Amino acid sequence: MSENINSSDRKSRPQFKNIGYGQILTSYKLPWSGKVSILHRVSGALLFLSLPFILYLFDKSITSEISFITFSEMVANPLIKLFILALIWGFLHHFCAGIRFLMLDTHRGIEKHQIQKSAITVLVISLALTLVLGAKLFNLF
Question: How far, in Å, CA of 61 to CA of 67, rounded?
Fold first, then answer.
């Protein structure tokens, strides 16, 4: 026998209609794995959309000595260095998160605490490597 449940008996859930990014970012708390997943997509899009610029820089760096000088002068610009730093982060994060997702696809580390730990590990490793390569990019060592 099925029971009819009145709408008043149900626990009321909040309804979100026409919410903006500000409300999503401030009122909804994503787990670390969700943040890594979103950043994985963002880093992939960044790498894909900047591929013509990357190929242009590669071409300038290997064509001739004169083009290498042009490349060196272009990369000396601080704004270009910041963009290259963003590309470095995008590559490192996409690589580390991709390894994590491959591990999850092979059913390794699928317990809840392992998933959260691996997500935090991806963030820490990718940011640490970005700091090291960024320091090298800005000639700090």
Answer: 6
pTM, to two decimals: 0.79
Please report the DSSP string for 55-122 in residue order: HHHHHHHHS-HHHHHHHHHHHTSHHHHHHHHHHHHHHHHHHHHHHHHHHHHTT-S-SHHHHHHHHHHH
* 55-114 pLDDT per residue, tens: 999 999 999 999 999 999 999 999 999 999 999 999 999 999 999 999 999 999 999 999
Total H helices, total E strands in the chain: 6, 0
36 contacts 119 by C-beta, under 8 angstroms: yes
Query: Domains along the chain?
Result: 30-137 (1.20.1300.10)
Q: What residues have CB less than 8 Å from 86, skipping those under 6 apart?
A: 46
> What residues have CB less than 8 Å from 118, skipping those under 6 apart?
33, 100, 103, 104, 109
